[in-house]
Amino acid sequence: MGTLLGRNAPLVWFWDMGSLNSIRALPYVLEWHRRYEALGLRLIGVHSPQFDFGHDTGTVETAVQRLEIPFPVASDSDYAIWRLYGNEVWPALYLWDRRGVLRHFHFGEGLYDDSEGAIREVLREIDEEVALPEPMAPLRPTDAPGALVKPPTPHTYLNEDKSPRTVAPGEALRIRYSGAGVAAVLDGAGEVEVLLDDDRVRTIVLDGPRLYELVDTGAHEEHEIALVFEDAARAYAFSFVPGPA
Fold first, then answer.
1. Cα-Cα-Cα-Cα dihedral sign, residues 3, 39, 105, 60
2. In angstroms, what CA-CA distances link 148 with 143, 207, 227?
3. What are phi and psi of 28, to 5 degrees?
4. How far apart are CA 9 and CA 126, in angstroms?
5. What's the CA gap between 34 and 32, in Å, rounded?
């Protein structure tokens, strides 16, 4: 990282393609890159996998292309960088100043205004007269400073060791939840019918292993979601979106 110092401020961002929290935080990280790269911010992604498919470099490269991530991403399949940082969650960010001093870190979603404020501070130290754009506005009501949020149903693995559950053609997976939305980590190639309280809401087409966002009601509600699989597939986990209180 030493070559990035002096006139640059490195931001190391740990993420996982199967982590809903990572995917929800990604638009902020992408916008920070767009706004501040020319002013000295250097984004470095570290993909530390949560599931077996994330250990494959080609799968990670496909995800980076699909998500249109423009900054470099290291494939941390053996968790060497994860252990070096003593990291614990997805996502996590570590902001260093131009002297190599850790100035800010944050685990999980939220407090985006604090993280952007720290970015702006270290960039002003590089150039006191730098012309900074206006800070980002919250992308979601639940991201606003001081917003009250209801916690959703916890992340639910279909097997305790994070290994996949094989789903047969025509089989349905059902789970009751509280929250404002649902996503699932799935792997396969066929269609999946998404039902909410037994009403069909959409059809998704699986295109390999990744996180699929299924339902977003925008409000904290209780429902049963069901996934009906056209073809055999693998299912890893359900994740749920917090809603406003």
1. negative
2. 9, 36, 30
3. -70, -45
4. 8
5. 5
What is the token pair recorded at 150?
């209801």
Whole-prediction pTM: 0.94
CA distances from 125 to 40, 99, 140 (A): 10, 10, 30
| CA gap 235, 182 in Å, rounded | 14
Residue 152's closest CA among 24, 90, 241, 237? 241
Instruction: Select the CATH number that applies to the domain covering 2-143 from these four: 3.40.30.10, 1.10.10.10, 3.40.50.360, 3.40.50.150.
Output: 3.40.30.10
150-244 under CATH 2.60.120.260, yes or no: yes
DSSP assigned state of 67: T
Structure-token pair, residue 228: 């009906």
User: What digits encode the pLDDT tens for the residues 37-71?
Assistant: 999 999 999 999 999 999 999 999 999 999 999 99
CA distance 21 to 40: 26
